Amino acid sequence: MNCIDWIGADVFCKQAWGRLPSVEEWEAEASDGGQRIYPWGSQAPNRDYAVMDEAGNEYGEAGTEAVCSRVLGQSVSGLCGFAGNVAEWTSSRFGSRRTHRVIRGASWRDAKASYFRASSPGRLRTMLGDDEVGFRCVRAWR
User: From the CA atom positions of the chain, what is the Rg in Å?
Assistant: First the structure.
């Protein structure tokens, strides 16, 4: 889901008996514990692996696509979309600023390879949503 603010994503995850991942949790899955450059391995980002803007004009091809539309881009655990389609909210704050959260991953508008890296330095957003940011929930298995 995209076009959702941080509060909406947080509430959704809590109602689904989960929570937003921390930056550390997100990176651990996206990098296979530091073993992968990109969620899918070492191959540079392209549209075989991620929904992205290969043209580099910040408008992407046509916008977001269905979850798992790029099966070659799956993480080691088989999770889809860790890089491309939408960047993702995390539970992590930036410093002491209550209005900014860290996002990870790249969006359909991104072309810069560093944004797709599993250990990307990340970007900060106010808690407002837009069409480039979505979320995933995590929860403990019983």
Answer: 14
Number of domains in the chain: 1
Report the C-alpha gap between 80 and 113 in whole angstroms: 18
Residue 1 lies in a domain: no
pTM, full prediction: 0.88
Helix and strand numbers (H, E) in the chain are 3, 4
Is residue 60 very low, low, confident or very high in pLDDT (cuts 50, 70, 90)? low
CB atoms within 10 A of CB 2: 18
Mean pLDDT score, 94-114: 85
Q: pLDDT per residue over 82-101, tens digit each?
A: 888 999 999 998 877 677 88
CA distance 142 to 121: 33
Structural domain harbouring 18: 6-134
